[in-house]
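does this look right to u?? guanosine-5'-monophosphate version
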Amino acid sequence: MNCIFCNIVKGKEKAEILFENNSTISFLDIRPLNFGHSLVIPKKHYENFYDVTEEDLHSVIKATQFVTSAIKNRLIPDGINIISNNGSSAGQTIYHFHFHIIPRFKNDQFTFRPQFKDYSEGMMREFADKIRMETKFSKEN
Ligand code: 5GP
Ligand code: ZN
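got this back:
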């Protein structure tokens, strides 16, 4: 399997590395939405959020908070988006799990706000019930 992010982990592909420990690595995104746009990945290859182990997810989210804090303190953005795209319909292009850390500025001219939908009567409960079939959550528990 030829994975560009695995190659960055192995040092075969160049990257501006921001942070690294035993299990995670963070580097600048090559095509930033804003300058300083960064990625955080587990060193081990997982296709996406669905299959990353709890242990590696913990490390990645810890590193994400650490790098976010560095970006916040050093680039002084007005806000920061932290996102993970999973599956091509969600915009995933590299199938090695990662979080994006995107510094945002008041006038940066892009938005993650598409047209919002409205639930019709009873529909919200229906959707919640479908998901609860799996989470097995009920207020009586
Ligand atoms: P996705 O679209 O899967 O959520 O995010 C993949 C990200 O990886 C994209 O924002 C893209 O710009 C970035 N990317 C793709 N190839 C490379 C690369 O070779 N080096 C770096 N640093 N970033 C890359
Ligand atoms: Zn990989």
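The beta strands are 17-20, 24-28, 38-42, 79-83, 99-104. idk if thats expected tbh
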